[in-house]
Design a protein that fits this description.
42 residues; mainly beta
Length: 42
């Protein structure tokens, strides 16, 4: 996994802060999934 906002790798079994607009690439392979965080205040 890689945090695209700061272009830093996320090691396995580690924690990362989920912030508004935070983008995490789950797989570097072709067709890999990208996760984008959107915080909703209800």
């Amino acid at each position: 996994m890689r945090e695209l906002t700061t272009n830093t790798p996320i090691p396995p079994n580690s924690m990362t802060e989920l912030r508004e607009g935070h983008q995490i690439l789950l797989s570097p392979d072709a067709g890999g999934r990208l996760m984008q965080v959107q915080v909703a205040n209800l």
